[in-house]
Specification:
The chain is of the alpha/beta class. It has one domain: Ribonuclease Z/Hydroxyacylglutathione hydrolase-like (Metallo-beta-lactamase, Chain A, 4-Layer Sandwich). Helices cover 21% and strands 28% of the residues. The strands form two sheets. Strands 6-5-4-3-2-1-14 form a seven-stranded mixed β-sheet. The longest helix is centred in the C-terminal third of the chain and has 11 residues. This is MBL fold metallo-hydrolase. Keywords: Hydrolase. InterPro entries: Metallo-B-lactamas, RibonucZ/Hydroxyglut_hydro. Pfam families: Lactamase_B_2.
Length: 257
């Protein structure tokens, strides 16, 4: 099993259209970031659960040759995490599966509004076929693999991260309650959303992210959901504390169950 970070950028992605800053014009491929998303998968068994399907979903799935997919775990309803929903049609058509999207009631209601054509009682031929599933409040088995939902705060919104084995993925976040912290013990790898250097109303900024990463104490923490305002990947990673790095698109993290 592994967790692949298929995107590590904030909502606009990096580079930002029209921006000429040193990050957006960098020639280092690690300074190019799709919108944040990830996938837990086990190539041997074919087990896979994507996390979010933002606007870059199609390119992300092509990039890792994810030819079959039946499950998407939704962190929350912001467009940078759901805008690729129409592209689940590829899995509907080629693999013949109805996509299971696991989400809280609030997120489900939002999806029904934003993508009403897909949930119409008589959808037009070719509309995405989606099966909305209630995200359980605590650990559940997804085809035999234990998935632990991690409730966290994203501004005033309750949103979710996910843990499988010794790896946890928490993207948009600026607060973690004690109850969830207790679900983050014994981690080998933590993926944590950290936006840039300045305090923000709904994301951790760098100093706070470092503090939180140290207190959770995973052996290795990778920051994701990164803004172009974070700075160059190479310069940042040369100066972060031991055990903390900026992630990059395509990063593969081994998962021990
Ligand atoms: Zn986001
Ligand atoms: Zn820029
Ligand atoms: Zn968000």
């Amino acid at each position: 099993m592994e967790l692949i970070l298929t995107g590590t950028g904030t909502s606009q992605g990096v580079p930002v259209i029209g921006c000429k800053c040193e990050v957006c014009t960098s020639s280092n491929p690690r300074d190019r970031r799709f919108r944040s998303a990830a996938i837990f998968r086990d190539r041997a068994s074919g087990w896979a659960a994507a996390i979010d399907c933002g606007p870059d979903f199609r390119q992300q799935m092509l990039g890792i040759e994810q030819d079959k997919l039946e499950h998407i775990l939704m962190t929350h309803e912001h467009m940078d995490h759901v805008a690729g929903i129409d592209d689940v049609r590829a899995y509907n058509f080629t693999a013949g599966v109805t996509m299971n999207i696991w989400a809280t009631e609030r997120v489900q209601n939002r999806l029904k509004q934003q993508f009403s054509y897909a949930f119409h009682h008589e959808p037009y031929p070719g509309a995405p076929r989606i099966n909305l599933r209630d995200l359980p409040k605590s650990e559940f088995s997804l085809n035999g693999i234990a998935v632990i939902p991690l409730p966290v705060w994203h501004g005033s919104w309750p949103v979710h991260g996910f843990r499988v084995g010794d790896v946890a993925y928490i993207t948009d976040v600026n607060g973690i309650d004690n109850e969830t912290l207790q679900k983050l013990t014994g981690l080998k790898f933590l993926v944590l959303g950290v936006l840039h250097h300045e305090p923000h109303h709904s994301h951790y900024h760098l100093d706070k992210g470092i503090e939180v990463a140290k207190s959770i104490g995973a052996e290795m923490t990778y920051f994701t959901h990164i803004s172009h305002r974070m700075g160059l990947e190479a310069e940042m990673n040369a100066n972060l504390p031991d055990g903390i790095q900026l992630a990059h698109d395509g990063l593969r993290i081994p998962v021990t169950l």
